[in-house]
Amino acid sequence: MILPIVAYGDPVLRKRGEDIDKDFPKLQELIDNMWETMYSASGVGLAAPQIGRGIRLFVIDAGGFVDEDEEDEEGLEGFKKVFINAEIIEEDGEEWAFNEGCLSIPDVREDVVRPERIRIKYLDSDFNEHDEVYDGLKARVIQHEYDHIDGVLFTDYLSPLRKRIIKGKLNNISKGKVSVNYKMRFPKSK
């Protein structure tokens, strides 16, 4: 089932997600719905807070970065994973900028500086524990989705000037004044 994606301004995007266990109700159905929702919106990652669920769960399929005409030097094709109760243990390496966007913040793309390498512990959908190191675009996508389960958005990394420049766009998104080709849920007006 394709779920509506929560828009910028909804409080769920600013809350740290709760850990879950194997008994979380209908977990596999939720994960399946997240995949379907992400693909429907042409995303490469989706975190549970983006569908209104305040839990520490995100999915990634970085194959969306691979252009048919280019060689997949970073091994992104087939990099499809579920992350449950993830914890980034370490971030290191050269910091580099990359133009990021977010399904919850449509029509806004900005350069974000992040470390090139991470070490992350997480559980997969079968609750097997993993402790892995990633770099490059894999690390970038994981960091972006991981931020969502911590209540952080990519716009938080922008300079005060950039934030002022995009403030109008962000206000319009929170008011539902944006056109997208996927289902969205906008914050209720006060």
From TrEMBL:
The protein's name in its UniProt record: Peptide deformylase
Cofactor(s) required, per the database record: Fe(2+)
Keyword Hydrolase: yes
One term of GO molecular function: peptide deformylase activity
Keyword tRNA-binding: no
Top-level taxon: Bacteria
UniProt record similarity statement: Belongs to the polypeptide deformylase family.
Binding site for Fe cation: 102, 144, 148
Record's function text: Removes the formyl group from the N-terminal Met of newly synthesized proteins. Requires at least a dipeptide for an efficient rate of reaction. N-terminal L-methionine is a prerequisite for activity but the enzyme has broad specificity at other positions.
Record note on cofactor: Binds 1 Fe(2+) ion.
CDD domains: Pep_deformylase (cd00487)
Xref: HAMAP family: Pep_deformylase
Keywords annotated in UniProt: Hydrolase, Iron, Metal-binding, Protein biosynthesis
Any single biological process term in GO: translation
Catalytic reactions on record: N-terminal N-formyl-L-methionyl-[peptide] + H2O = N-terminal L-methionyl-[peptide] + formate
InterPro entries recorded: Peptide_deformylase, Peptide_deformylase_sf
Record-listed E.C. numbers: 3.5.1.88
Residues annotated as catalytic: 145
